[in-house]
Amino acid sequence: MTCRAESGEAEAFSRAAVAVFRLNGRFTAAVDRLAPASGLSAARWQVLSTVTDEPLSVSEVARRVGTTRQSVQRIADLLVRQGLAVYLDNPAHRRAKLLAATERGGAAKQEVDSCLADLARQLCASLGGEEEVHRTAEIIRGLSGALASVGTGGSG
Question: Each residue of 26-35: pLDDT tens digit?
């Protein structure tokens, strides 16, 4: 595949990609620092957060978090062994069970969320207020959606 882009466009998107990867690493590290007391890691918190409000298949969780089904399956099995999630029968698919948070899992997620609220307040102040945080989030969601729509995979 030959990719042709104006050098300015390519350079700008290369810088954006590196910045997003760095941001992901920093978010992951921040959650990993906040989550251990709850028995969660950043990856476990992310999967648990995805199934707290509605049970989903492992494949659907993987699409929503933008990772592989195998990776989510490994994390889901760990959450189930910890008693933080359970597998439920899936009326739409006999073999693809649904993953759902348990009451204990919801409480662990809420504990991490409370710690993240303190971090969010600090970040909001650092970025210049809530409006700027919302604008930044919309830009990131827009980039994610654009990447999904041009065929690079993942979800927006």
Answer: 988 988 888 8
- Give this prediction's pTM: 0.79
Q: Is the pLDDT of residue 121 over 70?
A: yes
Please name the helix (run of DSSP H) or strand (run of DSSP E) that holds residue 57, with its range, or none: strand 56-57
User: What span, in angstroms and rounded, lies between the C-alpha atoms of 149 and 156?
Assistant: 9
Q: Centre a 10 Å sphere on the Cβ of residue 99 and count the other Cβ atoms it contains.
A: 27
Q: What does the alpha-carbon distance between residue 55 and residue 73 come to, in Å, rounded to a whole number?
A: 14
Question: Closest by alpha carbon to 83, among 52, 104, 66?
Answer: 104
Round to whole Å and give the CA distance between 105 and 107.
5
Q: Is 123 helix (H, G, I), strand (E, B) or coil?
A: helix
Structure token pair of residue 39:
């028995």
Angle CA 73–101–120, to nearest 5: 95
CA dist 123 and 107 (Å) reads 24
50 close to 64: Cβ distance less than 8 angstroms? yes
Phi, psi at 79, each rounded to 5°: -60, -40
